[in-house]
Design goal:
Distance between the termini: 35 Å
CATH class: Alpha Beta
Helix content: 10-25%
CATH topology: Spore Coat Polysaccharide Biosynthesis Protein SpsA, Chain A
Radius of gyration: 17 Å
Shape: globular
Largest sheet: 5 strands, mixed
Number of helices: 4
Strand content: 25-35%
Number of strands: 12
Length: 169
């Protein structure tokens, strides 16, 4: 097992470094778990049971609590507004990277850097997750989401002196 940690601005580089380590270790899969998310205990087993090259669960977006799952419609990213009419394993164009299991075979089919944050005519300005899924799409690799596997997303709120005092635990 290898553990890689990073601070926000370096997340694309760290994801690439983790893949480099996984190649050295000759692993079959990489499971990305983000530190601001919570996961059911059986997440690895559930994802492995799907036997897909790229598969994950659903994380709510911090801003809206809507699913961090999207489709490309006319080459524009369209986030799902809900999970209505969705259940079980569903082919998607992309989702957040936390709680995503990826076969190492994927990294034989897409070009390095795998997770680069881009600003280009091809990838517009996208985070490392969207860039990875664009590369999967371009390589003909299907991406799957188990909509029944739902994660939590941690969020912080501002505390002010006007808030009621809290007791120390």
């Amino acid at each position: 097992m290898a553990l890689s940690t990073c601070h926000g601005p370096y997340i694309d580089n760290n994801r690439d470094l983790l893949i480099r380590e996984a190649k050295i270790m000759n692993t079959d899969y990489v499971l990305f778990l983000d530190d601001d998310q919570t996961y059911p205990e059986d997440t690895p087993e559930r994802l492995l049971a799907h036997n897909k090259m790229v598969v994950g669960g659903v994380t709510p977006r911090k801003e809206t609590c809507t699913p961090m799952v999207w489709d490309y419609i006319d080459d524009k990213i369209t986030f799902w507004s809900s999970l209505r009419d969705k259940s079980g394993l569903t082919k998607v164009n992309g989702m957040g990277m936390g709680g995503v299991l990826i076969s190492m075979d994927v990294f034989k089919q897409i070009e390095y850097p795998y997770f680069k944050i881009h600003s280009s005519p091809t990838y517009q300005k996208h985070g490392e997750d969207m860039t990875f899924y664009f590369k999967c799409r371009d390589a003909g690799i299907d991406v799957w989401c188990d909509t029944d596997l739902q994660y939590g997303h941690m969020s912080m709120r501002e505390l002010t002196l006007d808030d009621p005092p809290r007791k120390n635990p």
